[in-house]
Design goal:
single chain, 378 residues, alpha/beta, DHBP synthase, Rossmann fold, 2 domains, seven-stranded mixed beta sheet, 17 helices, 14 strands, globular, EC 3.5.4.25, GTP binding
């Protein structure tokens, strides 16, 4: 992997520890400080000249007009935000309160600032950061810390493309036979992304030689609360087990268990979103308040896993058209879609309705009470 790729991986872990990183290009150097792990004393040092960089989704949540900016990332100079302590900074970054006056100060972010938000997302942190343009003595001091190994320097463009660094570099690590209640002939194959942060599992059901020419396939994003604990707030756990049973009934195939908790925002942010939902927001608006898009998942890893398993044609068990489009964009032929449902209950009705009405998921049958467990079982 190129040296810049290694630096991006190291930067992700520094940011998760609350350590600042310097993003550089030919003309500028930008210090980025994640909000998570930020100390009050550090805020005092930075706020006179720093800016808060947020996403367009977050800016709208702060009260900006829908067409106020077309930029995906915006900078808010802290000097114009009024009295600021750590608690108010966190409210600005991911609180539920609107602040239209502050939102009006927003300016389009530059490459380094957009790279900062990309790194925060990749690190599964709140997509917001303090940024400081380094010039003169401040830049020389930062370079001294970089030379001493205290801070890391990363090219801004490399940070901006951090979600592409793993493409084609997924590593097949280990495997074992794991009999499942719904499919006793199953094998787990673990794949690891090059930054070491995410591991994905291919659950291979049955013998590949017995599969249909278009392999039954489920892409399942990890859901700790639903898959493991049976949370009633979603239908994920039932979808997971139903998918295994359906693939078994279709003669075998593959379930890809992807490390994309909370539609890609991570468990910490998913729990924050749940708290916002308890305050009245639906799942889409809760994610937007935190600064995320409607769905932050990427399926490059799934395409690479299928390539490693020599699978090119699939029957996809999904209600999500985005998964079909993502696989097809990666060169996988989706010859058929099979619906896959969990049970509707009083706790997940609003969640499923929001997915259908706002994210285009194909859930009319389950929401209208007409669905059996899946079309494969009809």
């Amino acid at each position: 992997m190129p040296r810049t790729g290694h630096h991006v991986e190291r930067a992700i872990f520094d940011l998760r520890r609350g350590v600042p990183v310097v993003l550089q290009d030919a003309d500028t150097a930008t210090l980025i400080q994640p909000l998570e792990g930020l100390q009050a004393s550090r805020l005092e040092e930075l706020q006179a000249e720093a800016a808060l960089v947020v996403s367009r989704h977050r800016l709208m949540a702060l009260g900006a007009a829908p067409d106020a900016h077309r930029a995906e990332a915006l900078r808010l100079p802290l000097s114009g935000c009024g009295p600021l302590d750590l608690a108010r900074l966190e409210r600005l970054a991911f609180g539920a309160q609107a602040e239209p006056r502050v939102a009006a100060l927003a300016e389009p972010a530059d490459t380094g600032e957009r790279g900062a938000l990309a790194l925060m997302r990749r690190a599964l942190l709140i997509p917001a950061a303090l940024t400081l343009k380094l010039t003169g003595a401040a830049r020389r001091a930062a370079q001294a810390r970089i030379d001493a190994g205290e801070w890391l320097s990363v090219e801004s463009e490399a940070a901006l493309g951090c979600f592409d660094n793993a493409a084609g570099l997924l590593k097949r690590v280990s495997e074992a036979r794991i009999p499942l209640a719904e499919a006793t002939e199953s094998r787990f194959i673990l794949f690891r992304e090059p930054d070491g942060l995410r591991e994905h599992v291919a659950v291979v059901i049955g013998e590949p030689g017995d599969w249909q020419p278009a392999v039954p396939l489920r892409l399942h994003s990890a859901c700790l609360t639903g898959d493991l604990f049976g949370s009633l707030r979603c239908d994920c756990g039932e979808q997971l087990r139903n998918a295994v049973a359906d693939i078994e009934s279709m003669g075998g195939g593959v379930l890809l268990y992807l490390a994309q908790e909370g539609r890609g925002i991570g468990l910490a942010n998913k729990l924050r979103a749940y708290t916002l939902q308890d305050g009245g927001l639906d799942t889409v608006d809760a994610d937007r308040v935190l600064g995320f898009g409607d769905d932050e998942r990427h399926y490059r890893a799934a395409v690479d896993m299928l390539a490693a398993l020599h699978i090119q044609r699939v029957q996809l068990l999904t209600n999500n058209p985005l998964k079909i489009a993502s696989l097809e964009a990666g060169g996988i032929e989706v010859v058929e879609r099979q619906a896959l449902y969990g049970r509707l209950n009083d706790h997940n009705r609003r969640y499923l309705s929001a997915k259908a009405e706002r994210s285009g998921h194909l859930l009319d049958e389950v929401l209208n009470g007409d669905a059996s467990r899946s079309s494969a079982c009809k």
